[in-house]
Amino acid sequence: MTGQVKLEDSNLANYRSDEFKEMKLEVLKKEPAWKGLGEKKGIEIWRIEKFKVKRWPKERYGEFYGGDSYIVLNTKQNDEGKLSWDVFFWLGSETSQDEAGTAAYKTVEIDDLLGDEPVQYREVQSNETKRFLSLFPKMTILEGGVASGFNHVKPKEYKPRLLHCTGFKKHVQVYQVPIKHESLNNSDCFVLDAGLTIFQFNGEKSSSWEKRKASAIVAELKAARHGKVKDTYIIDGINDKGNKLIEEFWGFFGGRPDSIKDEEETKEQPDVELSMHQVSDESGRMEIKEVGRGKLDKNKLDSNDAFIIDGGSNLFVWIGKGANKKEKREAMKFATEYLKQQGRDANIPIARVLEGKEPQEFWDVFSGKKCGGRQQGGKDWKKN
């Protein structure tokens, strides 16, 4: 799409003088949730709870609820001891607009506290980037969330749930999926948690890594029930027969199907040509205009403006050193407006990068490489 896309001015425009910024920073430093923020190498996670940020327990890192929004800060340290940061806000598929907006706003607060240094990423459930997924040895997404009043219950009262284990090597992800035939496939592993009985279903083509992860989940669930689990059973594929527990397993699905699909269906993504768009308010009105398509020229990046780099399955918003406050702070808004105008999936991952702090995948786009974000279902992690 060529031409210009005009955006409405935001009420954030021109509201941050240097004096106001210093005052705001002093207030942010007193926020209990930000205590010790980014001071040492490692991961920190917060969940949005009723417009506030609450630290997520370390023992639950990698566990997310689809009804919530989270902020994840990854603090890195180079050989010279210098710290750098990636900050992600992760949006569950069922999170509210209020929670999503709070996560985005609070991510900007982290950016302020760390001197505008972090690379900022927006991640949406089932469309996460490899950079985000690689932060966790196991990532589990469960149904519900803080707004739904999710509580742990006793095994006898437990509502059955089906967990889908998919991926390759260390990057096996776990998702809660509906208990129905269509959720199963021959390529992955599944754990049916029925409270007092736990089943592991291994697809005929599942990898040893997926089987190992599913077995670990069964062991974790069994340990958490403190001896109350009566049975655990492994089912090797749809043709495994001859045991009453196998029939009990299929009873949760309304009976054994004649067949299941070979691998999970993936979300088709349009083949989008690489493009580059300049974001500027030089005319007195914020505008986005295309300045490159196909083979992109990095020399067109202007330190006085912001640019949207469309890498296909990912977007980058590049902020020049001379860009104004509005361009810096509304980068994510520009990108989501751009996707809307293009008729694209609003869940595409977005990264905001500052001039001089660009990750390698940003420069890869200029060499003609499309971004390799994870598509729905985790197929990019599969061993082909």
Report on the architecture of this protein:
The chain has 384 residues and is an alpha+beta fold. It has two domains: 4-136 and 276-358, Severin (3-Layer(aba) Sandwich), CATH 3.40.20.10; 152-251, Severin (3-Layer(aba) Sandwich), CATH 3.40.20. The protein has helices at 18-29, 97-113, 130-133, 208-224, 244-251, 325-329, 331-342, 360-366; strands at residues 4-6, 42-49, 52-55, 63-65, 69-77, 83-91, 119-124, 138-142, 161-168, 171-177, 189-193, 197-202, 231-236, 275-280, 287-293, 306-310, 315-319, 350-354. The strands form two sheets. Strands 1-15-14-16-17-18-7-6-5-2-3 form an eleven-stranded mixed beta sheet, covered by helices on one side. Strands 4-8-10-9-11-12-13 form a seven-stranded mixed beta sheet, sandwiched between helices. Strand 16 (306-310) and strand 17 (315-319) form a beta hairpin. The longest helix is centred in the first third of the chain and has 17 residues, at 97-113. 33% of the residues are buried. Residues 1-16 and 373-384 have low confidence and may be disordered.
Q: What does the secondary structure layout of this molecule look like, with pairings?
A:
Layout (H helix, E strand, L loop, with lengths): L3 E3 L11 H12 L12 E8 L2 E4 L7 E3 L3 E9 L5 E9 L5 H17 L5 E6 L5 H4 L4 E5 L18 E8 L2 E7 L11 E5 L3 E6 L5 H17 L6 E6 L7 H8 L23 E6 L6 E7 L12 E5 L4 E5 L5 H5 L1 H12 L7 E5 L5 H7 L18
Parallel strand pairs: 4-8, 6-7, 8-10, 12-13, 17-18
Antiparallel strand pairs: 1-15, 2-3, 2-5, 5-6, 7-18, 9-10, 9-11, 11-12, 14-15, 14-16, 16-17
